[in-house]
């Protein structure tokens, strides 16, 4: 068995050199087509000079949108990793006329009513059309700060 090497095999080296020569010649033909005057008589066989500028600009604009603009829009619309909205959509779970607009408000009211032993009213869930009692717990620490050993011990023990 031959030893593996990062060097290209001979046939790949030949193909690479052939493609290098081909694209160098095509680049010089493109530049000549873009800059030579139309009066040479070849204008009936070649596309309009407009495309010499339009195609590279189109490629650059498409690459700009695909690499910078669309990922930036997606990142700006993504909720924070610490947010409960990354797990549950509150508009689906909380009723439409609810006094709660976030889980933190529900947690605050729960902590206020717990010492007085008041029971929170049941909340009508829009997702499953049933009433649920509000269950609140201590906040979950952010995912990026969880200790892996603690997670494994909690999950597997």
Explain what this protein looks like in three dimensions.
This protein is 50% helix and 3% strand. It is built from 5 helices and 2 strands. The protein is elongated. It has a two-stranded antiparallel ribbon with strand order 1-2. The longest helix has 28 residues. The protein is mainly α and 157 residues long.
Write the layout of secondary structure elements.
Elements: H1 10-35, H2 50-77, H3 90-93, H4 103-113, E1 123-124, E2 131-132, H5 148-156
Antiparallel strand pairs: 1-2
Mean pLDDT, to the nearest integer, reads 76
Classify the secondary structure makeup into a structural class: mainly alpha
Number of strands: 2
Tally of individual helices: 5
CA-CA gap between termini: 48 Å
Order of helices and strands: HHHHEEH
Q: Determine Rg (CA atoms, Å).
A: 32 Å
The largest sheet has its strands arranged as: 1-2
Low-confidence stretches: none
Q: Profile the largest sheet.
A: 2 strands, antiparallel
Share of β-strand residues: under 5%
Shape designation: elongated
Describe the structure concisely for a colleague.
The protein has 157 residues and is mainly alpha-helical. Helix content is 50%, strand content 3%.
Key attributes of the depicted protein:
157 residues; mainly alpha; two-stranded antiparallel ribbon; 5 helices; 2 strands; elongated
């Amino acid at each position: 068995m031959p030893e593996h090497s990062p060097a290209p095999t001979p046939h790949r080296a030949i193909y690479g050199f052939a493609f290098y020569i081909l694209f160098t010649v095509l680049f010089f033909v493109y530049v000549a087509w873009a800059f030579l005057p139309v009066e040479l008589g070849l204008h009936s066989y070649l596309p309009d000079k407009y495309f010499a500028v339009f195609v590279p600009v189109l490629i650059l604009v498409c690459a700009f949108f695909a690499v910078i603009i669309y990922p930036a829009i997606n990142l700006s619309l993504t909720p924070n990793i610490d947010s409960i909205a990354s797990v549950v959509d509150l508009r689906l779970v909380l009723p439409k006329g609810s006094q709660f607009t976030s889980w933190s408000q529900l947690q605050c009211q729960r902590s206020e009513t717990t010492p007085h032993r008041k029971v929170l009213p049941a909340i009508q869930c829009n997702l499953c059309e049933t009433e649920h009692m509000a269950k609140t717990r201590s906040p979950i620490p952010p995912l990026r700060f969880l200790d892996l050993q603690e997670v494994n011990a909690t999950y597997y023990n």
